[in-house]
Fold each of these.
Amino acid sequence: LPLRDRKDEVGEVISSAMRHVTAASEVMADLTRIGSCPVGELPRHADVADALREVVRDDIGRAARHDVRVNVVAPQNAYEVVPIGALAVLMHALLGAAVNASPPGSEVVVTLSDSEEGHWTLTFDDAGHAVPVAARRGVLSRDFEAIATGRTAGVTLVAAMSIAANIRMPLEIDDAPSGGARMRLTIPKQNG
């Protein structure tokens, strides 16, 4: 049948195609950012809180396309000696994974807090499905099939784990209080 005779179906097909193109575009942007990660960069004085807010500003379009709100809880400043370029790429990957995992109309909560144990804690709580324990182990072993179970784009979590290991910042995946997943990054303090 000619397309003019199937008007309702055409709109659905076009809408579906646009969603797929947008998803592919987001994956390519993620891979490009990850591929350009400055993993050999030397640490320098930087404001981690400001860098976090900049990452959220950069990714607000993705959150809007997914109809997900991003709530940032962070101090005004968090000065530290860090490889800020690699840390920014890592924060983009974690925020992107959290937004992608969260259903429309939900909220991702990003928290940067000062710990008395000599580090900063950065958490990304999504509203999606919890990451199964087997998949959490899969992230550490880079098992893409285990990671994809019930969640989208596991490759960004694998990349995030690799970047975190490279810049020596432990990254753990737990259950979020909201029922989704929590990605917790520990940023060691150098400024004592």
Amino acid sequence: KTILVKADIKQIQGAWSQTFGLGILSAVDIETNLPISVNFPIFGAEHKFIDGSGYLGKIKVSTVVIDNKVKIVNIGAAAETLTSFRFKEASGNENILIKKIILTNVGSALDADIKNVRLLDQDGRLVVSAPSPVNKQVVFNSVSGYLIKKNSSAVFTVKLDVVGGNGRDIKFIIRNVDDIEAQSEKENYGLL
């Protein structure tokens, strides 16, 4: 089996050029009912802290205002425009690839009220789609990634079909930084 470990590392003064690694020291560090046959300790790759501000891409995300009025949508409405987000490469260092976006419905609509959720680019092309929310979340995965060139931006619009939910509301948001997975095009570094 393969274990993937992700860690958010906070910026620490004086940490540049320091190295770190993650590992498992002994079998007692693993909780399992199965026998373990490994030569301990085991460690993954060693990593080095670098200052990526002049090297890596940077993403800024903002909401695009479509209309300031509350929108009334009839049940049965298809391809209804819900919201838009602007993704901007803000460093000028490199192109970035948007690999995953998670949207969370903070409205009162149920998952079953919403079908055929689509993410379109600024030219109206379908980027990725999901059949419906699961536990109030829509996960848009793009294996190849959507390219945003350095110093450029892309606007993604969310469209969906409303199949139920009389009197309920729908509001999709990007809840936190972990809801966006992006990487640098050239070096494949994960970006926040």
Amino acid sequence: LTIQKLGSGDTTVTVSYDDGDPDDTCALTDTVPSCKLYMPNFHSQDGRFSAIITSDNGTELLAVAGSTKAADGWSGATSAVAGGSETVAVPNVSKNYYNWRSAINCQNVGGVATTLNVSYSGDEEDAYDTASLGVGESTQILVFTETFLPDAWQGGATITAETGAEVACTVGNSRTDGSPSGDWTSQYNAYNK
């Protein structure tokens, strides 16, 4: 995780994890405007997690997370989402479309607990709600395991936070056909509506 301040002056950045791992902090100055937190060196628990990144004085930040999977040789990066909204648009997800699989990762960035309503374009009748998410908690929606979507499906999705909460989402795509290592992953931020 690389964090850089975009303004001038000093600030202390706090990274708060949703899984109980202790917070990490780093001091950013005009001389040292960025820091890197390598996982698992800084985050000791195994598994998927999300984090909220804040500065002590409101300085605007840019955060980029990179991921790798050495055994398969893939890697990817995504920028942190600056804020959330009640509804986010996910323009491109796949269920085995030319061997591409997608997962949508969403975090409750609002001030109240919520459930998320998940709806896929062209299949709105199968929309459903996720389990409840507390403030700061996240969930992963595995598009490629959705039994009601046909195999080789590709389309968009809409994620809506209920109870007036705000949600921020990213999307991860990977190709699973056993091709040689290379550009077989992609990540992007969902769009706030």
